[in-house]
Design goal:
Helix content: 40-55%
Distance between the termini: 56 Å
CATH class of one domain: Mainly Alpha
Order of helices and strands: HHEHHEEHHHEEHEEHHHEEEHEEEHH
Shape: globular
Length: 388
Amino acid sequence: MSLPSIDTAERRARINARLLTRRKAPLAVADDLVALHATDAATVYLSLAARLTAPTVAAVERALYDEVALVRLLAMRRTLFVVPVDLAPVVDTAAARAIAAKEREKLLDFLREGGGWDAAWLEAAERETLEALHRIGPASGQELGAAVPALQERVTVAAGKPYEAVQTVASRVLRVLAAENRIRRDRPRGSWTSSAYRWTESTPWPELPIAPARAELVRRWLASYGPGTEADLKWWTGWPLGAVRKALAEVGAERVALPDAPAADGDGFVLPGDTAPVRASAPRAALLPALDPTAMGWRERAWYTDPGHADQLFDRTGNIGPTVWWAGRVVGGWAQATDGSVVWRLLEDVGAEAASAVEAEAAHLTAFLGDARVTPRFRTPLERELSS
């Protein structure tokens, strides 16, 4: 019996319908996307703004810092993500806890080698940090360093080498506390584009049974990004292949053929019963930021990003820059010019309707950015060229 088949046109239609849909609230967008890349602070705002019916910085800030409906976790692939708060315990158990444990091991090695400090010293430093946060409220790393002398201790890194450097232990201690959700990132000291976060008190997420947690994360991913291959899920989650296969079996994922994909990619997987074509929706133009979760949703990208454009849209390590989308595929790139306007370039002819829609999106994005200036942390050739 042959497998159900989902071709490239249908996969792009699913992106258009499921991952580029406009919503009224940031939380609804985050639910669609499962997890938003947050390595670059601006990416979170721009990913949400591209999909909100009436995007404002204030609405995103409310969700992050007032309602705490969206929370940051160091999770899949040791990357910082923003996820819906109801999904946070799942992501924590399925991916973040193991990463936090490794981060603590690395920190202890760093402290032993650089300063001769042990786990007892670290425990005392962490206790003093948590007590200071409780006493003074949300504080920057600098303010915590002033309140907790242990955080000001300095360590020489790569001693005797050309790139020798001296570092304080503060950033590493705070990173591990945050990875364990004993503290969390609060409003930055600067604008919404800044990563200079204040820190505030938090409580570790409840630990769930790991197999159901992994299955739930895969279920959410398939609902938004399916079909995907085992290789896609292995890359996205950062798990061993065996864990991916167990989670797929747990959710009863249905195997489908991907007739336009190279045979080496293997079959795809969807949720049970999700093999029928999605309801037709009007083609959508979108200007998505660098490291947007849709652009970074799969390991294999040739079906939605022309490999011939890779040298313009990706940096040398595979990070994707700002992209222009039409009808579920990447058709160009964009950047912010020095005067604040959004400039863009199509890398293929997609017709007058698409160009007009992209122009309108660029105008909306320019208005959203206002006086803010955004430069991606990982810059790509096309973004550099357009921004200059």
